[in-house]
Amino acid sequence: MSRPGRTFTEAAIAGIGATEFSKESGRSELQLAAECSLAACEDAGVNPADIDGMITFTIDNSDEVTLARCLGVKDLAYTARIPGGGAAAAATIFQAMALVNAGVCKNVLVWRAMNERSQYRFGQNPAQGQMSYSAGNGTGSLLWCVPFGAMTPASWGALQTSRYMHTYGVSNRDLGYLAVQQRAYAATNPKAWFYEKPITLEDHQNSKWIQEPWLRLLDCCQESDGGQALLITSLERARDLRQKPVKISGACQSIPYNVEVISNYYHDDLTIMPEAWGTAKRLYAQTGMQPSDMQAAMLYEAFSPHALMQLEAFGFCGKGEAKDFIKSGEIAIDGSLPINTHGGLLGEAYIHGMNSMAEGVRQVRGTSVNQVKKRKVENVLVSSGMAGAILSAV
User: Fold this and answer.
1) 3-state SS class at 311
2) 92: closest CA among 314, 301, 358?
């Protein structure tokens, strides 16, 4: 039963902002957070003092109080942090949407800032403290695999996807078609680290093995320095702001039983990504949409097989069909579903997937450097595995 005088509102992304993406930012993560946050506010035309909600990842090193002080935020009504790495990207949008829709906050800042390359290396064997955090304070699943040699994200990602690749006959060469397409997008994106640096399938196949026979170097996301922020408000307010509003038609999370954030090989069917299947089911039911309603998708791909498994989970092709879907050119700019048109985490930067959320906004606005032109972009799906959202034109 609704309270008297309370009305349901619709949330929208009103602003996006980012720093440059580099391998050595030369400044603190707090400064990166402040710069991308101010850029998002400027993009929206919102005074930072009017921010009343802030959401980031549990592993972001910039705390809300200090960042709020840097931005001149006057009165926070709500703050939250989403657990996990890249799985949190779309989940921040989900929580911000919920806050705005419920009338708890008017202007919610979502951010992620990191010196992942110059300050620490996510791709390497983690320190004991990091392992304990990732494993749940030392009692989680990583302690079952690290002693046996699975000591890096690439090894965990390979274990996660090896059964899928074996079952459906997906070779490493098949993965190369995804990497080549995403680097082609990055090559025409001036903000991408690999701007003007496309690759061929032969380049992919000649890159060194990281986890043979599944992952090569060019199947792995980058280690990047940088920051990315979004400013989320109500659709009603967004209509009066600087940019064309991007409506959040729906957003949700799914964390099924026995699914881990990264060491995801304890659930029953290792040929699927169950969190993505759960997110898809919930998201389509929430919005009344279906895969054919999407004109583009931004899919989290810390490692290239993850994009294939999400294409299937979200219903863009059948089980085991993603490799042929990609090889036939369907993810190219003139294909049926362009994905990661900024270059993705393989080609643009790895800001824990937040830069992919921003590219979804640009596609709906019509401002991407690799804009889908074959048809008008009405809906874009953005996914970070355990969460997803549909961003829509107004």
Assistant:
1) helix
2) 358
pLDDT digits (tens, 9 = 90+) for 63-103: 999 999 999 999 999 999 998 788 899 999 999 999 999 99
The pLDDT > 90 percentage for the chain reads 81
CA nearest 204: which of 231, 165, 177, 238? 177
In a domain? residue 53? yes
CATH number at residue 88: 3.40.47.10
Identify any residues that bridge with 231 across adjacent strands, giving them in sequence order: 15, 109
Helix or strand run (H / E) with residue 361: helix 354-365
Q: Is residue 69 part of a domain?
A: yes
pLDDT digits (tens, 9 = 90+) for 149-185: 888 889 988 988 999 999 999 999 999 999 999 999 9
In a domain, 100, yes or no: yes
Residues of the chain above pLDDT 70, percent: 93
Which pLDDT belongs to residue 134?
Answer: 45
| DSSP per-residue codes, 31-99 | HHHHHHHHHHHHHHT--GGG--EEEEETT-SS-HHHHHHHHT----SEEEEE-SSGGGHHHHHHHHHHH
Q: Residue 78: what are its φ and ψ, rounded to 5°? A: -160, 140
Reduce the DSSP state of residue 17 to 3 states and report it. strand
- For the chain, give the longest Cα–Cα distance: 65
pLDDT at 172: 98
Spatial distance between the Cα atoms of 177 and 324, rounded to a whole number of angstroms = 10
Mean pLDDT of the residues in the chain:
92
User: Which residues are tagged catalytic?
Assistant: 300, 350
Give the structural domain span for 80.
Answer: 11-115
pLDDT at residue 5 is higher than 70: no
Return d(Cα 166, Cα 33) in angstroms, integer: 41
**Residue 240 maps to a domain:** no
Q: For the whole prediction, is pTM greater than 0.90?
A: yes
What is the count of structural domains for the chain? 1
For 303, the token pair is 């490692």
